[in-house]
Amino acid sequence: MTITLQPITKDNWEIAIRLKVSDDQKHFVASNLYSIAEASFYPTAITNGIYEDDTMIGFTLYGYNDEADQQGYWIVRLMIDQAHQGKGYGRAAMRLIIDALHQKPDCEQIFISFEPENDVARKLYASLGFVDDGRMIEGEVVYRLDLHS
Ligand SMILES: CC(C)(COP(=O)(O)OP(=O)(O)OC[C@H]1O[C@@H](n2cnc3c(N)ncnc32)[C@H](O)[C@@H]1OP(=O)(O)O)[C@@H](O)C(=O)NCCC(=O)NCCS
Fold first, then answer.
1. Class assignment of domain 3-146?
2. Taking the model in full, what pTM does it have?
3. Where along the chain do its domains lie?
């Protein structure tokens, strides 16, 4: 499998908004339509399709947050379409996002948050080296990856 991140553009955004998680996962992540709309107001937000070869199978939004209490690089959204989950794509995409953020000279930590009952996300992030940051923001647990420790 070859997993890549490719920018959301006028040519693929309609594919992105058709990707869906299962009904019982909907409260874990905003729709891709919402995320793409939200990202349009933040110049540092990066929206990418997650591709397996030429097929978009997931979506991610990440970038720098300059709000006073949340300053830093955040992986804001991650989803794999329900038909493609459990095949290692989420883990592969996380590694690519971490690598992309690692390239930024001022990126020393990466933050991510998730609903407390999202055990799949919690285990995935912990296995990649994220640790509990000790914060809850808007009901979500915040995890942190220290890149230079
Ligand atoms: C979380 C998510 C992105 C993971 O993507 P994925 O492609 O399914 O995950 P992977 O196949 O790479 O698996 C990663 C790990 O999670 C485990 N996993 C995946 N789906 C699982 C499930 N339904 N139940 C239990 N474990 C699961 C895998 O076994 C794997 O662990 P392992 O490497 O120790 O075996 C995906 O499930 C998803 O989109 N969920 C809904 C949205 C969401 O919760 N996003 C995160 C919000 S912070």
1. alpha beta
2. 0.97
3. 3-146
Query: Residue 148 has what pLDDT?
Result: 80
CA distance 135 to 149: 20
For the chain, which residues score pLDDT lower than 50? none
Which ligand 1 atom is nearest residue 75's CA? Answer: 48
Ligand 1 mean position, distance from CA 91 (Å): 8
- Among protein residues, the one whose CA lies closest to atom 27 of ligand 1: 120
Q: What is the pLDDT of residue 97?
A: 98
CA of 137 to the centre of ligand 1 (A): 22
Strand order in the sheet with 55-65: 3-7, 45-52, 55-65, 72-80, 109-114, 140-146, 131-137
